[in-house]
Specification:
This protein has about 90 residues and is of the alpha+beta class. It contains two helices and four strands; from the N terminus they run E-E-E-E-H-H.
């Protein structure tokens, strides 16, 4: 249904005929960690996330799974062939 509370005119899964069925009856605004994300929508009542109704809960376990502004650090480890490693170790000894 179409939201009639904070995101007026936006399709919302929590909106019912009786009003918003989410906790406290309204969506939560974005937190400081969300600043710079591409999924933020700026409404008259504040900034809200397109994906999550409570963005603060998504940052509790580290980072938000849909954050577009946070780059995932991938550490590349060099694969070592165990046979070659044992030969190198025997040569040094």
């Amino acid at each position: 249904m179409i939201c009639k509370t904070v995101k007026a005119g936006f399709e919302c899964a929590f909106m019912t005929k009786n009003g918003c069925s989410f906790v406290n009856g309204i969506c939560a605004t974005v937190v400081d960690k969300c600043e710079g994300c591409g999924k933020i929508i700026d409404y008259e009542s504040g900034k809200y996330c397109k994906v999550y109704t409570d963005p603060a809960s998504k940052w509790l376990n580290g980072r938000c799974p849909t954050a577009t502004h946070v780059k995932l650090e991938i550490k590349e480890t060099q694969k070592i062939n165990p046979l070659k490693a044992s030969k190198r170790a025997s040569k040094k000894a």
